[in-house]
């Protein structure tokens, strides 16, 4: 699942150009029993299974470098935001632990994990897609990864606001026209219009983002 994602588009180009290195490892390869057991029944009883600590520690320790962040993707983590992506883009080594089920043995949190992140308030079958989401958000910020550098500076959230409306040719399409100011050639007026649109849009759609 993750390999398919990493072999697509921006993440593939980023790794092909040497700006990032990805490695995926399978917990089953770090088990020692014949059945390659990665989970077990919870102490104290109850439904569901809990991921065993030993394979997770062994897997992470097999790749961990000094100072690496070990990130557990879980709905219980703090919600991942653009500011977090910016912070993670400054790190040199991120390790994502993609748990399944309702539980990971608590000692993984106690002794291994440095951060718990959630991509939003919903539950998925495992942490693979959440890890891929975080990886995408972080890697695209690395210098030289996106073609048109400046594009990331003006975009949503970089300034804490939503983006202004965008238009390209034609000037009229199905009776919908481009605002005159964008055709005026007045760069100051364009900037003012965009700033106002950003403010308005943010106030309407994401009042939680307005200060
Ligand atoms: C429940 C993350 C489910 C607990 C993971 C993992 C959504 C997200 C899962 C865990 C996920 C998210 C305790 C590791 C796997 N679903 N919102 N499913 N633990 O980021």
Describe the structure.
This protein is α/β, with parallel strands linked by helices and 211 residues long. The chain has 2 domains: 2-139, Alpha/beta knot; 153-211, Orthogonal Bundle (Trp Operon Repressor, Chain A). Helices cover 36% and strands 14% of the residues. It is built from 9 helices and 8 strands. It has helices spanning 2-6, 9-16, 53-63, 82-88, 106-111, 128-139, 151-154, 180-183, 187-205; strands at residues 39-40, 50-51, 69-79, 94-98, 103-104, 115-118, 172-173, 176-177. The strands form 3 sheets. It has a 3-stranded mixed beta sheet. β7 and β8 form a beta hairpin. The longest helix has 19 residues, at 187-205. It is elongated, with a radius of gyration of 22 Å. The two termini are 39 Å apart. The model has no long low-confidence stretch (mean pLDDT 94). The structure holds 6-{[3-(dimethylamino)benzyl]amino}pyridine-3-carboxamide.
């Amino acid at each position: 699942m993750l390999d398919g994602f990493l072999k697509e588009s921006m993440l593939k180009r980023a790794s092909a150009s040497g700006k990032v290195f990805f490695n995926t490892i399978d917990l089953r390869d770090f088990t020692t029993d014949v059945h390659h057991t990665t989970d077990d029944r919870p102490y104290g009883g109850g439904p569901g299974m809990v991921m065993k600590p030993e394979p997770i520690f062994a897997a992470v320790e097999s790749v961990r470098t000094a100072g690496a962040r070990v990130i557990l993707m879980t709905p219980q983590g703090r919600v991942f935001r653009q500011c977090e992506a910016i912070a993670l883009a400054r790190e040199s080594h991120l390790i994502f632990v993609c748990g399944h089920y309702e539980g990971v043995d608590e000692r993984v949190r106690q002794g291994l994990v440095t951060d718990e992140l959630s991509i939003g308030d919903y539950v998925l079958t495992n942490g693979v897609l959440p890890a891929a989401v975080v990886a995408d958000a972080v890697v695209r910020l690395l210098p030289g990864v996106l073609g048109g550098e400046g594009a990331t500076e003006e975009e949503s959230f970089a300034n804490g606001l939503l983006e202004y409306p965008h238009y390209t040719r034609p000037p009229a399409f199905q009776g919908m026209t481009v605002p005159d100011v964008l055709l005026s050639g007045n760069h100051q007026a364009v900037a003012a219009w965009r700033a106002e649109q950003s403010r308005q849009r943010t106030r309407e759609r994401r009042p939680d983002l307005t200060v």
